[in-house]
Design brief:
Growth Hormone, Chain: A, 81% helix, mainly alpha, globular
């Protein structure tokens, strides 16, 4: 039976290209929450009289749920496909934005005191659920594409989806001075809601997931393979997590991703504050420097990172990318001048962007039987760096004063050195890995 006949007989919808478009779109609109508090951190700090550590926790708040929710939701794809998990995460993000908009319309600016700090954190946690869409879209895309094309497909997915925080950082930086906090976040709520509706309309699961609901696993696997789907999920959510957790290379990839993607999340939220307070730029200039100079650079170069990872191998590309992170962190730690600091930001952004693509090129290679579970561990625990690091950077500020904004980057010097060592370890063990 021909491909068209099978599509018609089983009423299958979608194709790899549309699967990639839908996953990327869903990731894009949910992932914007990375920039939720970064551009406005100085306003919250001033109005609510927050310490450096409290500011760090505030800008990192969305990243906590955005990282931890990735583990179960990424693994859930192996059982349910991608559309349902991603839709639920976007819905939770909408709830968070509704709560944030409501508290700002009600209390900002005169009554928004430090007593309401826990509520601002809570709505940040909820809004951050959208960030977890990443680990859903990774297996959602992987199940659509053959492994020979996953590097470029995942590079496009991650690169284009990753542009959301940079774009929203710039937009928020420009509309905040005009509309104020309450109206700016309400516009964000409207955009998130509209984007979610569009995702619900265009998204379809890979053929196996559509078929298994109709004809059972064995027959679904046979037909989906005949339609070009190479990766087939191995079992339930718990099984997927157990299988991937039992491989030490999963945890090596977690460590790499903690620095590359967790670092991307942390610094996307932190750089606008860094440029505003340490260098004294206005909100718009700081938004452009943090949004375009770091976040968009890291996002777009991730596409290239996927391409070179296909050609050179993810491990070698990881070594090069973390070397760039090391150089950038050295510039930012030592210098207090604009030009070397901006150069450092470019280096660290390029390194993290390329590193992100390299790491997820390795996930299907090392854990082919449980891509969803591995994506959950790597994406979830790796992204935890986005939550863990900003409060540490804030402690440097509290302990050292203004110069702490620079000295805090020593954290990334240490992380980059560790990741270079782990990448060499993966290369040395590569001969023992059975390539799928």
């Amino acid at each position: 039976m021909s491909t068209n006949d099978l599509m018609i007989k089983y009423k299958l919808k979608g194709n790899p290209r549309m699967g990639l478009v839908a996953a990327t779109w869903g990731f894009f609109i949910g992932f914007a929450a990375v920039a939720l508090y970064g551009p406005a951190a100085k306003e919250f700090k001033t109005i609510m009289h927050l310490s450096g550590a409290e500011v760090g926790l505030l800008v990192a708040a969305p990243m906590l749920t955005g990282s931890l929710m990735r583990i179960p939701f990424g693994a859930w794809v192996d059982k349910a496909g991608g559309k349902k998990p991603l839709s639920i995460l976007l819905g939770l993000g909408i709830v968070g934005m509704i709560g944030l908009s409501a508290i700002l319309f009600t209390l900002y600016p005169d009554r928004l005191t430090s007593n309401y700090y826990p509520f601002i954190l809570l709505f940040g946690f909820l809004s951050g659920c959208g960030i977890a869409t990443f680990s859903v879209g990774i297996p959602q895309t992987s199940y659509w594409y053959p492994q020979s094309k996953q590097g470029i497909a995942l590079g496009l997915y991650g690169g284009l989806g990753n542009t959301a925080p940079g774009i929203f950082t710039i937009l928020l930086s420009f509309i905040l001075p005009v509309l104020g906090l309450a109206h700016s976040y309400f516009i964000w709520l409207l955009l998130l809601t509209l984007g979610t509706l569009i995702y619900l309309y265009i998204a379809h699961d890979a053929y196996f997931f559509q078929l298994v609901r109709k004809i059972g696993k064995d027959k679904a696997e046979e037909i989906s393979k005949s339609l070009g789907q190479e990766l087939i999920p191995s079992g339930t959510v718990i099984e997927s997590l157990k299988i991937s957790a039992g491989k030490w290379r999963t945890w090596a990839l977690v460590a790499l991703y903690f620095t590359s993607f967790g670092g991307f999340l942390a610094l996307t939220a932190w750089f606008p504050t860094y440029w505003r307070i340490f260098h004294g730029f206005g909100i718009r200039e700081a938004g452009l420097l943090g949004g375009a100079g770091f976040s968009l650079l890291a996002s777009f170069i991730r596409i290239y990172g996927g391409n070179i990872s296909d050609r050179l191998g993810g491990e070698k590309v990881a070594i090069g990318s973390f070397s760039l992170v090391l150089i950038g962190a050295l510039f930012l730690t030592i210098s207090s001048a604009f030009v070397p600091d901006f150069i450092g930001e470019l280096f660290i952004g390029a390194g993290m962007g390329i590193g992100n693509a390299a790491v997820f090129k390795l996930v299907p290679r090392y854990v082919p039987e449980s891509v969803g579970g591995a994506s959950g561990w790597v994406g979830g625990l790796g992204a935890f760096g986005g939550f863990a690091v900003p409060p540490v950077l804030g402690v440097f500020v509290d302990r050292m004063g203004q110069i702490g904004y620079a000295r805090g980057f020593i954290v990334y010097i240490a992380l980059a050195i560790i990741c270079i060592g782990i990448s060499y370890l993966l290369i040395s063990s590569r001969k023992n890995v059975k390539v799928a």
